[in-house]
Amino acid sequence: MSTHLAFGVDIGGSGIKGAPVNLKKGAFAQDRYRVATPHPATPDAVGSAVAQVVSMFSPSKKTPIGITFPGVVQHGVVKFSPNMDQSWIGVNIDDVMRDYVGRYVHTLNDADAAGYGEFLYGAAHGRDGVVFLATLGTGIGTAVIVDGEVVPNTELGHLTINGLDAEEYAAASARERHDLDWDEWAGHLQTYFAEVERLIWPDLIIVGGGVSKSHENFLPKLALRTPIVPAELLNGAGIVGAAAGAAHFRERQESKDKAEAKRAKSGAK
Ligand code: BGC
Hints:
Layout: E1 5-11, E2 15-22, E3 27-28, E4 33-36, H1 43-55, E5 65-69, E6 72-74, E7 77-80, H2 93-101, E8 106-109, H3 110-121, E9 130-136, E10 140-146, E11 149-151, E12 160-161, E13 164-165, H4 166-170, H5 172-177, H6 182-200, E14 204-208, E15 228-230, H7 237-268
Parallel strand pairs: 1-5, 5-8, 9-14, 14-15
Antiparallel strand pairs: 1-2, 2-3, 2-4, 6-7, 9-10, 10-11, 12-13
Helix pairs in contact: 1-2, 3-7
The structure holds beta-D-glucopyranose (BGC).
């Protein structure tokens, strides 16, 4: 990556966190700053909270800024987000953030950011083939990375398992809500991941989300054909992945623009 510094912001249900990221190391360049997620978490309230986080660091105009969102963000527009305020649906989040932050930002799904971060710096570092990441939290976020490219907005946390939305059945919140012990919850995860591997045949599965810190309690109980490992970036995954994703997006955009300019120039001759 030609840029060495980018800025990442992670929008979560309880906190909005941001930090400058050293892209060579895949680590925060300064301690992160956090504000509580406003309630209701409407576009305006969240936009202003994100601006507050970014202004703590005043990144230079050249620094790419990436933001994670817990839902489907298709070409900048929020299409689906079961755990966020529903006033987001149909809103162009890149535009909202540009208005509040004062310049272009790139927004991506939170699990996609985490998956990209794990591919660049963590449990799937440099891994070819199909990597599947699931973040187990309030919901289940998923990322599919194929030879280092993220297939955006896979929503495999909403497969139907035993008649339930997988998120209701196997997220970390489901363990707490149904008061499941580790063995019982591992049983739910077994059913969930067996269904995922039946459908997409990954080469590696990564489990992220806060609960992955306690992976000894449940990963050894799973019997899957695919190797399954805990995420390595933990708390930093969203911020680091968002920053790296924004830098990657900008590079791709710049090379497309260059190719376009070249084509226009040769056409004009
Ligand atoms: C959403 C996903 C998101 C995940 C984790 C799910 O409910 O549908 O888009 O990645 O929660 O926040």
